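Q: Please design a sequence for this.
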């Protein structure tokens, strides 16, 4: 009779462990994301130019360009940023 009680406890422990593993694997599922790409004509073109700042007057910027010309950029917004190397 003592061995039958031990076997019942082992079976219950095994069943409880299996149930815990089932919940554990169910709750640890990874999130799936979907990425799509489209081909076609670019929607934005970016041109990088370089030069030396000659003057700043209010929101106007004057730059000596790499080709030797002086270029005027009027009404630069205050949120604009320039990269200085």
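A: Design:
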């Amino acid at each position: 009779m003592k061995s039958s009680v031990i076997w019942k406890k082992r079976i219950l422990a095994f069943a409880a462990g299996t149930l815990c593993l089932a919940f554990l694997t169910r709750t640890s599922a990874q999130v799936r994301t979907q990425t799509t790409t489209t081909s076609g004509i670019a929607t934005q073109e970016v041109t990088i130019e370089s030069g030396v700042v000659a003057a700043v007057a209010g929101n106007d910027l004057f730059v000596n360009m790499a080709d030797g010309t002086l270029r005027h950029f009027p009404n630069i917004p205050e949120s604009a940023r320039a990269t200085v190397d």
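Q: Thanks. Anything notable?
A: The chain has a mean pLDDT of 79. Residues 2-27 form the longest helix (26 residues).
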